[in-house]
């Protein structure tokens, strides 16, 4: 029971969307405008124990692209306000939920996001993803990594190092700022302007190197280029002497929360040389997208046959 629910939490984070709350209206991605929302059915917090009902409440909060107030959860679940208030307090004290700046709305907490990141790093996709990453490194001759977005940071889910003696070592679990990394620019570029502004309003554009973009207007122009070209470059914006090129892993008709990237010292990899590696990265991204789209049962069977 707990395992199935953890998988649901994991699927939510794989499709990540920035959080916002519109009570009587919904955001229609295809029309790119606010439209009347349908009346959803009450969410059922089923569970044989108080712990399982807390997990069920986490499912409700993780399944929707919005911040929840206590009253909104009462309307969504039909539970009495005192009961929900007690449950929210328990989840907040365990760092599974956190209260936003206004003190009235709740979002996923640090501990829950860490759980989702660990699931992404260690699930059954890992072996297949690593095989794609290892093949990519053999093709391009430089270190490559798979990343995801967590809040205002990019997290390294997996990485395969080059055999070259001079390299930058960033192990899985490493975090880099969203605004000065190639993967971060990719994630920002697929958001709407309002979503980017909401995220960056709480993530100061700190300067890591002289090349770091710390002006919102300049960053926005860079993101327009990323949207146009379909790839992003970090040209010594996070670490001096490091260049990175990243592309998004396709996720069908939903936003993706995975990138694949190549990194190398600038003495070996210039922006022009990095662009020449783009076809190999795009092939790897498509392969990674197919792995994520493949049913678990089919993937397990293939691994067993191997």
CATH topology type of the largest domain = Beta-Lactamase
What is the succession of H and E elements? HEEHEHHEEHHEEEHHHEEEHHH
What level of helicity do the residues show? 40-55%
Low-confidence stretches: 12-40, 299-306
How many individual helices?
12
Using the CA coordinates, give the radius of gyration: 21 Å
DSSP E strands, number: 11
Q: Give the neighbour order of strands across the main sheet.
A: 8-7-6-11-10-9
Write the layout of secondary structure elements.
Blueprint: H1 2-14, E1 25-28, E2 33-36, H2 50-62, E3 68-69, H3 70-77, H4 81-93, E4 97-99, E5 105-108, H5 110-122, H6 125-140, E6 143-150, E7 153-160, E8 175-177, H7 182-189, H8 193-200, H9 216-229, E9 232-235, E10 242-248, E11 259-265, H10 271-276, H11 278-293, H12 296-305
Antiparallel strand pairs: 1-2, 3-5, 4-5, 6-7, 6-11, 7-8, 9-10, 10-11
Helix pairs in contact: 1-2, 1-5, 3-4, 6-11, 7-9
Task: Describe the model.
With 306 residues, the chain is of the alpha+beta class. It folds into two domains: 2-114, Winged helix-like DNA-binding domain superfamily/Winged helix DNA-binding domain (Arc Repressor Mutant, subunit A, Orthogonal Bundle); 124-305, GAF domain (Beta-Lactamase). It has twelve helices and eleven strands. The strands form three sheets. A six-stranded antiparallel β-sheet has the order 8-7-6-11-10-9, sandwiched between helices. A hairpin with a 5-residue loop joins strand 4 (97-99) and strand 5 (105-108). The chain is globular, with a radius of gyration of 21 Å. The two termini are 29 Å apart.
